[in-house]
Specification:
Blueprint (H helix, E strand, L loop, with lengths): L13 E2 L1 H8 L3 H9 L6 E2 L5 E4 H8 L11
Antiparallel strand pairs: 1-3, 2-3
Helix pairs in contact: 1-2
Length: 72
C-alpha cells in the first residue's frame, strides 16, 4: 500500500487512519485513539481530516517492521 495523493502543504508522505489501521491490523478507531492519546503523531488537513506522516508510522511500528510496499 502506498501513501495516497497528498493534499498541498504536507511535508512528507502520509496515510489515512484506515491505511495505518491495516498496517497494524487494528480498527481505524484504535488508530484515532492512539493519536488522541499522543502515542501516534498525526496532522490535520485543511478540511480537518487526520493524516499520519510516514515517519510517525515507521517510528510507531518500530525498526523490525516494514511497510507493505517494502515487502518482496
Amino acid at each position: 500500500m502506498t501513501a495516497t495523493a497528498e493534499p498541498p502543504g504536507l511535508p512528507e508522505p502520509s496515510y489515512w487512519p484506515g491505511e495505518v489501521a491495516a498496517f497494524f491490523r487494528v480498527d481505524a478507531r484504535t488508530v484515532r485513539r492512539w493519536a488522541n492519546d499522543g502515542k501516534l503523531r498525526c496532522i490535520f488537513t485543511p478540511g480537518g481530516h487526520r493524516r499520519f506522516p510516514e515517519s510517525a508510522v515507521r517510528a510507531y511500528l518500530g525498526e523490525q517492521w516494514v511497510l507493505p510496499e517494502e515487502r518482496q
